[in-house]
Design a protein that fits this description.
Thiolase; 387 residues; 12 helices; Thiolase C-terminal domain-containing protein; 32% helix; single chain; 11 strands; alpha/beta; 17% strand
């Protein structure tokens, strides 16, 4: 299948922001959406009247209609694609295509969730149910939960390639080390490999620290056409290439538990950007569980298949999840939009914690954000650059 390219206008990210994150007991999800949107707009320096596109998912009966109304927007382009954690990378791809084609000039991607506060206030139970209709009817009766599916895939990788529990634990340790430098991270106390291995078992082989935290929080990203960049407060970060892919929903239809859909979305994104994985300076990867980071690094091409375990143990490897990721910093639900925010901050030199530098001391030139949805069901990958 031939690779498609965008015609006409270039597309840039010009505004990013987080809402209040972590423990936020006094706000609604709508309020976090609005807070993040206002901050991202202020970050861009543009007027809200320019926004003519909105992408949102996960809130309301008619998302993004309800969010648009709450924000006081009347967009002429909308997207409510919902493919789990990969939603926001896929939405960013759709928004970039729409802007390049002239269907919109400025698209706001916005998300907010009070997943932690809702449990604390008993507005919801601790477990998320995807129901038991359709294909899920063949798995739900046997207790095959979302985490169990990831755990089973991790065990397969361990069987096929000799990946160890210590290597998976190293992913959590590195994430916490990054979070320790980030004042916005929810958990900052250092942890060791032994801490991860000795924790309570959740789903074999995952102990508690192999799993993402549960937090509140929101964020927003504003994309615009190139002709508006000169009016912005800061230098643009350009969308260079995107890719998306869906793999399966029923585990029996997944051909290889050791290959995620990022193998396709990543290849497409790099091809369309005209760059190689080796050119990338920093990677923001969805990490609901430690195995996700490891296998996504393989599938994006940062190391060969089966070598992810050794790769995550390398001292000077590619900087990954520089804010602390979903394992330590913030994970209110569909975390994919946070990956884009951190990638942009890194390229701008505005990271609140660990700021990546190239060997010559300059700021990073290229970043990749890759989101995963469901139980490795979907993937979206976005390559961003300063030039």
């Amino acid at each position: 299948m031939p690779t498609t390219t965008r015609s006409s206008r270039r597309v840039a990210v010009v505004g990013v922001s987080l809402s209040d994150c972590g423990r936020v007991d006094g706000a609604t999800p709508y309020a976090l959406h609005a807070q993040a949107a206002r901050r991202a707009l202020a970050d861009s320096g543009l007027d809200r009247s320019l926004i003519d596109g909105l992408a949102s998912a996960g809130l309301g009966t008619l998302a993004p209609v309800e969010v648009a109304e709450y924000l006081g927007l009347r967009p002429r382009w909308v997207d409510s694609t919902a493919v789990g954690g990969a939603t926001w990378e896929v939405m960013a791809a759709h928004a970039a295509d729409a802007i390049a084609a002239g269907h919109a000039n400025a698209v706001l991607l916005v998300y907010g969730s009070t997943a932690r506060a809702d449990i604390r206030a008993r507005r919801r139970t601790s477990n998320l149910s995807f129901g038991s209709r359709g294909p899920l009817q063949f798995e739900v009766p046997y207790g095959h939960t979302l985490i169990a599916k990831y755990a089973m895939a991790a065990r397969r990788h361990m069987h096929e390639y000799g990946t160890t529990l210590e290597q998976l634990a190293e992913v959590a340790v590195r994430a916490r080390a990054n979070a320790a430098l980030n004042p916005e991270a929810m958990f900052r106390e250092p942890i060791t490999v032994d801490d991860v291995l000795d924790g309570p078992m959740i789903a074999d082989p995952f102990t508690k620290l192999h799993c993402c935290i549960r937090s509140d929080g929101g964020c927003a990203v504003l994309l615009v056409a190139e002709e508006y960049v000169e009016d912005c407060r800061k230098d643009p970060v350009w969308v260079l290439g995107t890719g998306e892919h869906v793999s399966h929903t029923t585990m029996s239809e997944w051909e290889d538990f050791t290959v995620s859909p990022a193998a396709v979305s990543g290849r497409l994104a790099f091809e369309r950007a005209g760059v190689r994985p080796a050119d990338v300076d920093v990677a923001e990867i969805y990490d609901a569980f430690t195995y996700m980071t490891l296998v996504t690094l393989e599938d994006l091409g940062f190391c060969a298949k089966g070598e992810g375990g050794a790769f995550v143990q390398e001292k000077d490897r590619l900087p990954v999840n520089t804010d602390g990721g979903g394992l330590s910093a913030c994970h209110p639900g569909m975390r994919g939009l946070f990956l884009l925010v951190e990638a942009v901050r890194q390229l701008r030199g505005e990271a609140p914690g660990l700021q990546v530098r190239r060997p010559d001391g300059s700021l990073p030139e290229l970043a990749v954000a890759s989101g995963t949805g469901g139980w490795f069901c979907s993937s979206g990958t976005v390559v961003l650059g300063r030039g």
